[in-house]
Structures are given as structure tokens and as C-alpha cells.
Amino acid sequence: MVLAPDPLEGPMPSTTATALPAWLAEAVKDRAERELSERASNLRLVMDQADKVNKRLAELGIEPLSPAGYDQHGNQKAAVLILADYEDYTYEVRALWSTDDNAVELHTADFEEDSTAFGRVRLPRSIGDAVAARHETPKFPARPRDFASEARWAIDGLNVDRLNNGEVEAVVTAINGVTAALLNLAQVNSRRP
Fold first, then answer.
1. Please, what's the b/e burial string for 6-25 (b: 16 or more CB within 10 A of its CB; e: otherwise)?
2. Whole-prediction pTM value?
3. Coil, strand, or helix at residue 19?
4. Choice between 20 and 83, residue whose per-residue pLDDT is larger
5. Where are the alpha helices (DSSP H) in the chain?
């Protein structure tokens, strides 16, 4: 008995010799154009933010050691205003654009930490704010709250089984339900942009 040859055996066809279907080639080209356009848009935004930082610093009469700009990856580079002085225990001060406040904000870093991370200290309203920032410990945003675990903790804290009064049990059960509903609703709303 002679078996038919297996179509999977033998040399594999060259994938480079095969041209892409027209629709796929068009989709690849479209994607590349959109990515380029998005990168250009992001770079324009970062350049605009750097210009705003430099302009605001000039308005305040502050000449940075290094002006705000952007790196080769298109990320915003902070303006370096004052370097750290380890003997005087003062922090390095940098200026960045805050999209939350739509203003320049000053950042410092604790040089005694193992990994130096800059955190916000204040918005500059005068030239003196840059000097004052040298002495301020950076403030980092709080961790996002986990409302679902807070709801579970609140519900567990009101233990219905330990109560002897049926009416109180009903009230505690209602509070548990409302707490869970409100905290989970807050969790969902906190995820929205």
C-alpha cells in the first residue's frame, strides 16, 4: 500500500519570498503612519511643556543650571535649578510641568535614599520658592486605595453573629450592604480617566 506524501514534510516555503496581501500591506502602512503621528504629537506636547517650564522660570527670574527639555526617547527632562549640598543637607531642586495643575512644579529628591526618586514639593510663586524647596522633603502621591478590601474590612468589623438583638442585626446587615455598595462604586469611579 502506497501512502500519499505528507504536505507538511519537505522544504518549508520561504516566508520572505511571499508578498503580503494588499490589504495587510495597507494595514501595516496605516499602523506605522499612526504610530509616527502619535509619537510626533507626544513629542510636540513634551516640547510645549518644556517651553512653558523655561518661560515660567524666566518670568520668576530663575536661571536654571540646565533648562527643561526632552531626551532622545521623547520624555520630558526637568530643569535643574539647584544641586544638592550634602554638607548643608539641602536637596537638589528641579522644575517640571504638572498636567494636573497646568503649572510648573518644583521637585526634590532625598539624597540619603538608596534609589533617588524625585517628588513634588511645591508650585513656584516666587523666586524664593526655589530656595525654600531645597529644604523640603519630597512628597510622593499616596498609593491608590483598594476600596473593595476596605469594604470587606468594614463588613468583617461589624460581626452580626455576636449580636443578640434581631433589630440591631438587621441594621448591621444593611450597613454592611450599603458600605460594600458605596466603596465598590467608588472603586469603579476611581478607575475612570
1. eeeeeeeeeeeeeeeeeeee
2. 0.59
3. coil
4. 83
5. 22-60, 127-133, 147-157, 166-190
